[in-house]
Design brief:
Blueprint lengths: L1 H10 L19 E3 L9 H5 L5 E5 L4 E6 L8 H5 L5 E3 L14 E6 L2
Antiparallel strand pairs: 1-4, 2-3, 3-5
GO molecular function: 4 iron, 4 sulfur cluster binding; lyase activity; metal ion binding
Pfam family, one: Fer4
InterPro entries: 4Fe4S_Fe-S-bd (IPR017896), 4Fe4S_Fe_S_CS (IPR017900), Fe-S_Ferredoxin (IPR050572)
């Protein structure tokens, strides 16, 4: 027991807060979506291996729904999009207490 306390006393604080540096440039994090370019083709929905992307449409509007709780950040959706509306960013701050905060809804103009 005393050995553990002595070791902790010598090393000091080993826990750090969030990293002070940004994620690497090619890190695949949260999506940046630019809806004004979207053709509503559904290629991203079909390509997503986990079903994290949905397109909800009615007579008035169309919405692209991304569930980050299901997303594995593989980047396939961004690769298959012919109009390049999706881009993987290096944003990794997605921690939340509410599951609903992990859902991004983007309105697509028709």
């Amino acid at each position: 027991m005393f050995e553990v306390i002595r070791k902790i006393w010598k090393t000091g604080i080993v826990t750090r807060k969030l990293p002070s540096e940004e994620a690497p440039r090619r890190y695949r994090g949260k999506l940046d979506i630019q809806p004004h370019k979207c053709k509503n083709c559904g290629a991203c929905v079909a390509a997503c291996p986990t079903g994290a992307i949905e397109v909800l449409s009615n007579d008035e509007c169309c919405e692209l729904v991304v569930s980050y709780g299901k997303c594995i950040f593989c980047g396939i959706c961004a690769e298959v999009c012919e109009t390049q509306i999706m881009r993987m960013t290096n944003g990794y701050h997605l921690a939340t207490k509410n599951k609903k905060d992990l859902i991004q809804v983007v309105r697509i103009p028709q």
